[in-house]
Design brief:
single chain; 288 residues; alpha/beta; Rossmann fold; seven-stranded mixed β-sheet; four-stranded antiparallel β-sheet; 23% strand; disordered C terminus; binds adenosine-5'-diphosphate; binds magnesium ion; nucleotide-binding
Length: 288
């Protein structure tokens, strides 16, 4: 049984002029325990809306979401809130840390809603988690005194301290420079793996997306499996020109290997539909 299963999930909103905006149009997605999945897409295609539904922050307009065998539509508001706290850890582009509180207090915060050992030993658990993200010597530092990469590491510690089954990361490297973003993703991948948490990462960055075992593109509310090769994701030549060659005299050598700066258009070139050779999507690899 899959950990998460979305079938035919739609989300629409009624705009002030009474038009209906269909943000998600029939999403099918299954994610197994411990699996790493990435979703790429242009701005405004519904990525955050999808992540909010997955994390029980929002509900589908139609379709079904089954979490660990339980159709979430049948849960009470209170039960959904409890599962949100126990099953999910969130990492956001803008870190969303509590300013004016120390790193330790930020990581302790989710444990205030926990029970048993997680509650009683919250300061020890939070300190251990900050140690794991390399911030053992910054427990008493406030976020505004930390660099962006360090703040995101605090946010990762906060997301993981309750050992969630799923980490939902919405553009986790979007506010970081390329090297820092890469370090942060290494950390997120590693700790998720050690904890056995599934990781669903939304990103513009093909290098980030290519780390995941399965990759999808969200376009106009429709989710499609794709394959991004790590090689094409890592070189601007491939990003700038579909043929994999540098884009001529206009090519910016300074941007090589910085796919985060290359925007969505290149994603369209490199992120091609899944081909059977990659065998990444169950059921699609049998065709050849
Ligand atoms: N509650 C809402 N009311 C009206 N429009 C919304 C609402 N939520 C999202 N949208 C619109 O739906 C589209 C998708 O939003 P979002 O999921 O944030 O996209 P992404 O994260 O891919 O940039 C955007 O055009 C956004 O303005
Ligand atoms: Mg978004």
């Amino acid at each position: 049984m899959s950990l998460l299963e979305l079938s035919g999930v739609t989300r629409s909103v009624v705009l002030p002029d009474d038009r209906t905006l269909e943000i998600l149009r029939g999403i099918d997605l299954t994610v197994d325990a411990g699996e790493h999945v990435s979703i790429v897409g242009r701005s405004g295609t519904g990525k955050s809306t999808l992540l909010n539904i997955l994390g029980l922050l929002d509900a589908p307009t139609s379709g079904e979401y089954v979490l660990d065998g339980v159709p979430i539509g049948r849960l009470s508001g209170r039960a959904r809130a409890r599962r949100r706290g126990t099953d999910f850890g969130f990492v956001f582009q803008q870190f969303n840390l509590l300013q004016g509180r120390t790193a330790l207090e930020n990581v302790v915060a989710p444990l205030l809603y926990a029970r048993g050992r997680q509650f009683w030993q919250r300061r020890t658990l939070a300190a251990e988690m900050l140690e794991r993200v390399g911030l053992g010597d910054r427990l008493d530092t406030r976020p505004e005194k930390l660099s962006g990469g360090e703040q995101q590491r605090v946010a990762i510690a906060r997301a993981l301290v309750r050992v969630p089954r799923v980490i939902l990361a919405d553009e986790p490297t979007g506010a970081l420079d390329v090297d820092t973003g890469s370090e942060v993703m290494d950390l997120l991948d590693t700790i998720a793996r050690e904890n056995g948490s599934a990781l669903i990462a939304i990103t513009h960055d093909l290098a980030v997306a290519s780390r995941a075992a399965r990759q999808f593109r969200l376009a106009e509310g429709v989710l499609t499996p794709i394959a991004i090769s790590a090689r094409s994701a890592g070189s601007l030549g491939a990003l700038g020109a579909p043929g994999g060659q540098p884009s001529g005299p206009g090519a910016d050598p300074g941007a090589a290997g910085h796919p985060a700066e290359s925007g969505d258009d290149q994603a369209e070139h490199v992120a091609r539909p899944l081909v059977p050779a990659h065998g990444a999507a169950p059921g699609e690899g049998d065709a050849a």
